[in-house]
Design a protein that fits this description.
The complex is a heterodimer of chains A (607) and B (121). Chain A is of the alpha+beta class. In chain A, 50% of the residues lie in helices and 19% in strands. Chain A has 13 helices and 17 strands. The relative contact order of chain B is 0.17. Chain B is α/β, with parallel strands linked by helices. The chains are: A alpha+beta (607), B alpha/beta (121).
Chain lengths: 607, 121
């Protein structure tokens, strides 16, 4: 994951986490506060609604009190004079006082005068018979004697639950204007607490109201829920209806002080909505601030760190690709990245210095190798001419060109010849090794005849083998082509070295040279001896220059400087060949060289 | 080739003597020259059948002499046998010379020289 993505992820998730915590916090703490506020608002409105109802009741009651403490009423209940009746019980009175019922009951409990009025239809109606049960002399409406036996001049007021609906009802004892008795009965007024009345209260109090009798079976849903939880008039119950509306409920007692009505106040959830809006606005603004914060952080991070890191990375990559240690990364500012850039440049400087030194050392080494090859070449050249004089003079002596020789003299001259050849062989190897090291050896591709090649080699090696009384045999299998392409001089070097080596390490038995074709695209030659063999652990190292198998058993034959096999191996590699050893200590060794087969034009592979 | 004339160009006196002796014993005419500069004049003057040419010579090198012989029309029939101790140099001139002998050369190589050249032609 890139640093950019990681940073975005870390900051992003931190912001989201923070938002979630703040959201949860504001939802619980803030919204709880708002809900509490809402509940209080609802309760206040319930109080207002109750007050509205009470005010209405009080208006009826105070008017009823005025009428009951009036000598005209006092007399009317007895004489039922037309004057009072016509002046005070006509329809206009009902309309202005919003009354449905007006009763004048005498002390015997008989209705002296009663009138019902339908306010909706604005016409007289019969006094509802449902009132009859409550119009008994010892009933709550007509009995004004208190617990101490005195007349209660204040009368009574309350809500009466009638079958046709609840009714606000007031009743006062009829006294003279001076509030003197004895009482002539009761004056009872009633007003239905119907939808119109409730609406009137709602209009005055500016609160949506509804009313429902507790005992009625057809309570609507929310009322029935509340009816189960609300049992007395002391507590109010607040419950949201939906996200828009909230309702408060309170129980109103009837005139007998028993739960009679559930009074409902419905309010729009302004407070709650305000709370929601506030929280949403808060979260939204927080989100905006957060996004700006993240964006700013990322931009700054990009500018201050990431883009510079990317630049550094690109510069270092470019240097790696171009391998140009002299170029430098750009360094700007003054911080950790600056010091990183400076460090990289320092490292590049050190690497560049090292590279220059290494190149110098390599050039010097190559120069030294070339010089060495040059010197060895000169030495070789200068040694060859005198050696040639020696070998030719010996040959002339042997051939009797300077007089007849004894057998002993000829034998000694043979020894001189063999030793001269060994010296020459040694000088050749020294020269070849130097030329191989200096990379001056070129492989030629000329045509040669394998049979002649092996014959010449055998002839030149015979004297050396004969000196140690060893057999030297050559076998060429029939599948070897009559003509081959290759560098016969280098092949001769390889084969001579192997044979010289074999002779050197063999005291008894013989050396066998064998040429064959392992497959259609390769030809090979093998040099086998019956010598001391090469220990397994030494087989990997025998091709290193100047290395020899050490040990007392081989020491006596350990002549030379150990260049032969190194040259064999290097030349074989240059000819794209492979060399393998199969050796057993005390039994002998077999070296096999496999070379790619190159045929001159017209030559074919033997089937 | 009836009694061929062989010019031996060799700065080593002893080796030159040996080769000359061996060749004369087998019935050939020879002349031995030790100096590169002198060699060119003598070759031009005598037009030998075969030149035995050493590569490292005083004054004028064997390579220059070889190039000069090859660019002289009247010497077109002259065969050149390089005799050198420097195997690399010898092999580098293999295509320009008729034969290359790397020192040390053997008695048999000297004796077989005329036979081999005859076979080449």
């Amino acid at each position: 994951m890139s640093l950019r993505r990681k940073t975005l992820l870390i900051i992003g998730s931190t912001l989201i986490g923070l938002m979630v915590v703040i959201y949860a916090f504001s939802q619980t703490i803030t919204m709880n506060g708002f809900l509490h506020l809402e509940e209080n608002t609802v309760k206040r409105n319930i109080d207002r609604a109750i007050n509205g109802l009470n005010d209405e009741m009080d208006v009826i009651y105070s008017t009823n009190q005025d009428w009951s403490n009036w000598t005209d009423t006092y007399n009317f209940v007895d004489d039922l004079n037309a004057n009072y009746r016509d002046g005070n019980t006509h329809d206009g009175i009902f309309q202005s006082y919003n009354l449905n019922v007006m009763l004048f009951v005498n002390t015997k409990g008989e209705i002296a005068f009663g009138k019902g009025y339908d306010l909706d239809k604005e016409q007289e109606m019969p006094v509802p018979t449902s009132l009859d049960p409550y119009l008994k002399p010892d009933g709550i409406l007509l009995n004004h004697i208190d617990a101490s036996g005195e007349l209660d001049k204040a009368g009574t007021k309350g809500i009466l639950l009638l079958p046709e609906g609840p009714m606000m009802i007031v009743s006062s004892p009829i006294l003279t204007t001076e509030k003197e008795g004895p009482t002539h009965g009761s004056i009872v007024w009633g007003r239905y607490l119907d939808a119109k009345e409730i609406q009137a209260i709602a209009d005055k109090t500016k609160v949506a109201l509804a009313i429902q009798e507790i005992n009625k079976p057809y309570l609507s849903d929310d009322f029935s829920i509340v009816a189960k939880t609300l049992t007395n008039s002391d507590s109010a119950f607040v419950r949201p209806l939906d996200s828009q509306l909230i309702a408060g409920y309170v129980v109103l007692n009837d005139i007998f002080n028993k739960p009679g009505l559930i009074y409902r106040v419905t309010l729009p959830r302004e407070v709650y909505a305000q709370g929601q809006t506030s929280v949403s606005t808060f979260i939204l603004s927080l989100l905006v601030v957060g996004i700006i914060f993240v964006a700013t952080t990322l931009i700054l991070l990009e500018k201050v760190v990431l883009s510079r890191l990317a630049d550094l990375n690109t510069s270092v990559s470019n240097i790696r690709i171009s391998k140009d240690l002299t170029s430098r990364v750009k360094v700007a500012g003054d911080d950790e990245l600056t010091s990183l850039g400076t460090s990289i440049n320092g490292m590049l400087e050190a690497l560049s210095q090292t590279q220059i030194k290494l190149e110098q050392t390599r050039d010097e080494a190559l120069e030294a190798l070339k010089l060495k090859a040059q010197i060895v070449g000169n030495v070789s050249h200068d040694a060859r001419t005198p050696l040639n004089v020696i070998t030719l003079r010996v040959e002339m002596l042997k051939r009797g060109m300077y007089g007849v020789l004894t057998e002993k003299q000829i034998e000694l001259l043979d020894t001189v010849q063999v030793n001269a050849n060994q010296l020459l062989f040694f000088i050749d190897n020294l020269l070849d090794q130097a030329q191989l090291e200096a990379g001056k050896v070129v492989i030629y591709h000329n045509e040669f005849v394998p049979v002649d090649f092996f014959k010449t080699l055998e002839t030149s090696m015979k004297p050396l083998a004969g000196k140690k009384r060893l057999d030297l045999e050559t076998e060429i299998t029939e599948d070897v082509p009559a003509r081959l392409m290759g560098d016969h001089q280098r092949l001769n070097q390889v084969l001579s070295n192997l044979v010289v080596n074999a002779i050197k390490f063999t005291d008894e038995g013989g050396i066998k040279i064998r040429a064959f074709c392992p497959d259609e695209t390769h030809w090979a030659f093998q040099v086998s001896d019956t010598g001391a063999g090469i220990p397994k652990e030494a087989q990997d190292r025998i091709f290193e220059a100047f290395w020899q198998v050490d040990g007392s058993s081989t020491r006596k034959v350990n002549r030379g400087v150990g260049l032969g096999l190194s040259i064999v191996s290097q030349l074989t590699n240059l000819m794209n060949g492979t060399i393998t050893i199969d050796s057993q200590e005390g039994v002998g060794s077999t070296f096999t060289i496999i070379l790619p087969m190159e045929l001159p034009e017209g030559e074919q592979v033997h089937e | 080739m009836n009694r061929p004339f062989i010019m031996i160009i060799e700065d080593d006196v002893e080796l030159g003597d040996i080769i000359s002796t061996v060749l004369q014993d087998s019935g050939l005419f020879t002349e031995t020259v030790r100096d590169g500069g002198l060699a060119l004049d003598r070759i031009s003057a005598t037009e030998p059948d075969v030149v035995l040419l050493d590569m490292h010579l005083p004054n004028v090198s064997g390579s220059d002499i070889l190039a000069s012989i090859r660019s002289t029309p009247k010497l077109s029939r002259t065969r050149v046998v390089i005799t050198t101790a420097d195997a690399l140099l010898g092999r580098a001139n293999e295509d320009k010379a008729d034969l290359v002998l790397i020192k040390p050369i053997t008695f048999d190589q000297i004796l077989g020289l005329t036979t081999r050249l005859a076979r080449l032609s």
